[in-house]
Amino acid sequence: MDSKRPIIRLQVDIRAKEALDALCELRGMTQVAVASRLLKWFVAQDEVVQGTILGLLSDSAVASLGELLLKRIAAAAEKSSSN
């Protein structure tokens, strides 16, 4: 591993740890690889997605966001199928 890469520690509950262990086994990946990829993806998301994942939005805001995201997905699918 590159010595210039920082290492962080995570604290998770036992159920999350067991689920991570199962995921790592299924995918043939280390916990560090899974956590690194998830964190890299998460920090690249916009603040609305991050806020939703972190539970910072109200239920009504999450419902509205869900509708908005479905519309975006449908529009993107329509655009890609017309190209």
3D architecture notes:
There is one protein chain. The protein has 83 residues and is mainly alpha-helical. It has two domains: 9-44, no CATH class; 46-83. It has helices at 14-27, 31-44, 47-53, 59-82. It starts with 13 loop residues before the first helix and ends with a helix.
Q: What is the count of DSSP helices, taking H or I runs of 4+ residues? A: 4
Flag low-confidence runs: none
In N-to-C order, the SSE pattern is HHHH
The biggest beta sheet, please?
none
Helix content: over 70%
Structural domain count: 2
Beta-strand content bin: under 5%
- The geometry reads as extended
Helix- and strand-based class?
A: mainly alpha
Mean pLDDT: 89
The strand count comes to 0
Instruction: Give the N-terminus to C-terminus distance in angstroms.
Output: 42 Å
In short:
The chain is an all-alpha fold and 83 residues long. The chain has 4 helices and no strands. It has helices at residues 14-27, 31-44, 47-53, 59-82.
